[in-house]
Specification:
heterodimer, A: mainly alpha, 2 domains, 6 helices, B: mainly alpha, 20 helices
């Protein structure tokens, strides 16, 4: 019951932030909503007892990829849309939304925490990593190796397209 | 099933491993070769493709073999598509050699991307697990996004790359959404386990949604109407040899993926997806052919023609029989020859002073380059489906497979569409044979281009007169689809 409630709350938050990412007027706000979105997805992984994935989600997406996005936003110097800051209550409303989001998230985490006996999460940690590792290096070794070629193509492609000469 | 990844698996993956090694050697060689002397890297790429083709023949077995815990099936169906893809890649390399010099582009990185796209296609054809198929598709797609935009000073090339990337990423998202629903419904990504789970579940609104999403995602890759909007712009803007590779290799691999997913993974829902593809096929044929009528750019015209051909090929999927699949396989070989040949002539017309992709650039080609003009005549007749050429045999088999499976109206619509298509194919001939000579320097044949033209011309003519060996091979390959393989044992 608590798990279902946590799922629906998180799903609503993910969708809500997703909509905010595309509707936000300022690119920086968009990226920040994306961070919130990624964190909610990470919370979703926790409710699925995939703690390792949750940690990776926070580190790679909320950490690494979003920092890259922020760099891009900074470097391409997007113009601030006119009268984005005129409305004085705008930031207040944004703060309220974020506050509610955080409260709901805390409630979700607490709900999940209470629904499970203590000590279980610690026991799940290492086996989770082992499961992912085993799946990647035995059952899915071929697509895993193929993905390395895929990343190589992406890397070389980025260099080719960014280089000045042809 | 072996408990661990074994040497047997590696043996059966030899074609992919050879090509992957070729890719890495090519990459290092590119780094070590100065820009002016990169020409030999094209021949290295050709060698890697030939070695991989030899490996495909070496590991081919009459009985399908399951490799890597059922992720990959080494069967005649996969071998057939790998053959088509490798042939298309080799012809692409031949078309590219002088084209790259004219454009002032580097050979090494270009060939690297072509080989990586080929590698992705090979996994799309042989994967029996949605994960393998998807990673293969993504490898191919990323390589093509970059290849489409490789001519950086050319604005059309930039536009092609951006359009293809944005729409491609969007369509991959749709496909992945469909796949994730399939996984959620069945708990597996393996196509055979999926078939059992779906059959046990019966018709279900979620499965219908997944079906539509997967069909839409693949429909984009094969450029079926209404998911074709990217094709004309991308085909026009991309480097011409890449356009050729996109229209043959990418389309073949995507059709292989479509056949695997729908005939092997979702056979119990065939009543539903047949209706879906029926509508897609009719609309695709008709819109493709009608839009091609008014084009003034050869590459755009061939893009719409390739959209129409996706419609014809869907007939084989709708028939769903061994005969229908065999007809598709036959058609793909023939299509590879005639389409690559037509693009070879467009590449020939690219000179230092002329871009050469407008229909009027074909003016008076008969007087200036008779061999190319006659070859182009054969390719156009073949694309239109006129009897002595291979195109007729291909269409004949596709339409008769439809009639065989009681889709008479589909065959009638196909024949009517072929008649419409003759108009724009013959327009090309009118330009070459009856119009005044176009401006610009004399188009000259290079050895590589001559080889490509001779090979494609020979394929188009020989398969039109003596198609029996190809028919037998295609029947054999079509029968392998969906057969449960034996486990890999060599050592």
């Amino acid at each position: 019951m608590a798990e279902a409630a946590a799922f629906y709350i998180l799903a609503a938050l993910i969708l809500g932030f997703g909509v905010l990412v595309v509707t936000a007027k300022s690119a920086v706000h968009s990226v920040l909503f994306l961070v919130a979105d990624f964190l909610c997805v990470a919370a979703l992984y926790v409710t699925l007892q995939a703690e390792f994935l949750a940690v990776i989600q926070v580190m790679v997406y909320a950490g690494g990829i979003v920092v890259l996005y922020l760099f891009v936003v900074m470097l391409v110097n997007l113009k601030r849309p006119p009268d984005a800051q005129r409305d004085p209550r705008r930031l207040g409303r944004l703060g309220a939304v974020l506050a509610v989001a955080v409260m709901v998230e805390l409630a979700a985490i607490l709900a999940v925490g209470w629904s499970r006996p203590e000590g279980e999460a610690g026991a799940l940690g290492p086996s989770n990593v082992a499961q992912v590792g085993r799946a990647l290096y035995t059952d899915y070794l071929i697509p895993f190796e193929l993905a390395s070629i895929l990343l190589l193509v992406a890397m070389i492609g980025a260099i080719l397209l960014a280089r000045r000469e042809m | 099933m072996p408990a661990w990844f074994s040497l047997n698996d590696l043996y059966y993956l030899l074609p992919e491993l050879v090509l992957a090694s070729g890719v890495l050697v090519l990459l290092v060689a590119t780094a070590l070769t100065p820009k002016r002397r990169q020409g030999w890297l094209s021949w290295l790429a050709l060698g890697a493709l030939a070695a991989s083709a030899a490996a495909v023949l070496a590991v081919a077995r009459p009985v399908p073999v399951d490799v890597a815990r059922g992720l990959i099936s080494v069967d005649a169906f996969a071998a057939f598509f790998k053959g088509i893809v490798l042939l298309a890649a080799a012809l692409t390399v031949l078309l590219s050699v002088r084209y790259l010099d004219t454009e002032g582009a580097r050979h090494g990185s270009y060939m690297f991307l072509v080989l990586c796209a080929t590698l992705g296609m090979m996994f799309m054809a042989s994967g029996t697990d949605l994960v393998v198929i998807f990673v293969g598709l993504e490898t191919m797609a990323i390589a093509f996004y970059i290849l489409a935009g490789l001519l950086k000073p050319d604005r059309r090339s930039n536009e092609a790359a951006v359009k293809y990337f944005l729409l491609g990423a969007f369509s991959l998202g749709i496909l992945l959404y469909g796949i994730s629903i399939l996984y959620g419904m069945s708990g597996t990504t393996n196509l055979r386990a999926l078939a059992e789970a779906v059959a046990a579940r019966g018709r279900d609104p979620w499965l219908m949604l997944a079906l539509i999403l997967v069909a839409a995602g693949i429909g984009f890759k094969i450029a079926a109407v209404p998911f074709h909007m990217w094709a004309p712009d991308v085909y026009e803007g991309a480097p011409t040899p890449i356009t050729a590779f996109l229209s043959v290799g990418s389309k073949a691999a995507s059709f292989a993926m479509l056949l695997r997913i729908f005939l092997e993974g979702l056979p119990s829902l065939s009543g539903d997806w047949t209706i879906l593809f029926y509508v897609l096929a009719v609309v695709t044929m008709t819109v493709g052919n009608i839009a091609a009528l008014t084009q003034s750019n050869t590459k755009r015209m061939l893009a719409y023609s390739s959209i129409a051909h996706a419609g014809y090929l869907l007939i084989g999927v709708i028939a769903g029989t061994t005969r229908g699949v065999a007809a598709m396989l036959i058609y793909f070989v023939i299509y590879a020859f005639m389409q690559m040949g037509a693009f070879a002539v467009v590449v020939l017309l690219r000179r230092a002073d002329v871009i050469g992709d407008e229909l009027k650039d074909l003016g008076g080609l008969l007087a200036r380059q008779p061999f190319a003009a006659v070859a182009m005549l054969v390719f156009m007749l073949s694309l239109g489906g006129i009897p002595p050429t291979a195109g007729f045999m291909g269409k004949f088999w596709l339409f008769s497979a439809a009639i065989d499976a009681n889709y008479v109206w589909l065959a009638v619509i196909g024949v009517l569409n072929s008649a419409v298509s003759l108009y724009y194919y013959l327009r090309v001939v009118v330009f070459m044979f009856m119009k005044h000579e176009a401006a610009g320097s004399q188009p000259a044949l290079s050895p590589a281009l001559t080889t490509a033209l001779v090979v494609t011309l020979a394929g188009t003519l020989v398969l039109g007169v003596y198609p029996r060996p190809l028919f037998e091979l295609a029947e054999l390959s079509a029968r392998a689809l969906g057969v449960v393989g034996v486990s890999a044992t060599v050592f």
